[in-house]
Request: fold
Amino acid sequence: MADQKKSATGLDPKIAAVLCWILAPLSSIIFIFIEKDDKFVKFHAWQSLFWGIIAIVISIVLSTILSFTVILICCAPFSFLLPFIVTIVGAVKAYNGEMWKLPVIGDIAEQQANK
Reply:
């Protein structure tokens, strides 16, 4: 059996990329500092970092807005649904070895990974 390529962490790059998405943005920051060579892992680390920050901001803003609207207060949990779905899709795409790019932040993440 051929020796599989490993990331700087000693993990399979696909597993490292999935871990970037789990608990993002914290896990992303860790992989950004650890991973120096594997562009696939670096790409997913940067993209999940940017997405994690955006998801937190979206959730806070929507929860705040919805909490002031009595009729829409039941919709507040849905403000967490989109970030959760995107995170799951990102992790699955990473596990499948895909360079799946989110609009706008995917290009920025690719630029950062290529530095």
Remarks:
- The chain is about 60% helix and 0% strand.
- Residues 47 and 106 are 6 Å apart (CA to CA).
- The two ends are 33 Å apart (CA to CA).
